[in-house]
Amino acid sequence: MKLYGCWKGLVVALMRIGELASAAGVSPRTVDYYTQLGLLMPAERTASGYRLYAADAVGLIAAIQTLEQAGLRLEAIADHMRQTTDNLPGSVDQLGRTVQALHQLANSESGAEANAIVTALISRAHQLVMTAADLLGTLPGI
């Protein structure tokens, strides 16, 4: 990290794609793919067009990988990030309300099959809420 630039009004050390990949423990191709999907945004570009990333992109890559390991597709993560970048805590609250609604549905359904399906959905939603809550502290700007 020997390059410096202005990002979000601060002077920060910037990393080239290979440096970011190394710091995050992924391949440069992964960084490139995440950038193409809109999961990562370069802080700026060099005069010759090379992308430079702020250091907090390392934490964002870790968060993306955690969500992917929880079963979310990268495209779904990118779509959700585009919709909720300004209100991630609100999105987590909405997930919590969804879990509560599923609990109520599970208690109201009389059929064993419906109850089993709703119980599985509750478990999955709970896992996603816990993952999102864990990530709130690791995402930059939250």
Largest sheet: 4 strands, antiparallel
- Roughly what fraction of the amino acids lie in strands? 5-15%
Low-confidence runs: none
Topology as H/E string? EEHHEEHHHH
What's the mean pLDDT score? Answer: 74
How many helical elements?
Answer: 6
Describe, in plain words, how this protein is organized in 3D.
By secondary structure, the chain is an alpha+beta fold. It has 2 domains: 1-85, Orthogonal Bundle (Multidrug-efflux Transporter Regulator, Chain: A, Domain 2); 86-142. The protein has 6 helices and 4 strands, in the order E-E-H-H-E-E-H-H-H-H. A 4-stranded antiparallel β-sheet has the order 1-2-4-3. Strand 3 and strand 4 form a beta hairpin. It is elongated.
Task: Give a brief outline of the structure.
By secondary structure, the chain is α+β, with helices and mostly antiparallel strands. It is 62% helix and 13% strand.
Key structural traits:
2 domains, single chain, four-stranded antiparallel β-sheet, 142 residues, Multidrug-efflux Transporter Regulator, Chain: A, Domain 2, 62% helix
Show the helix and strand layout.
Blueprint: E1 3-7, E2 10-16, H1 17-24, H2 28-37, E3 44-45, E4 51-54, H3 57-69, H4 74-84, H5 88-108, H6 112-136
Antiparallel strand pairs: 1-2, 2-4, 3-4
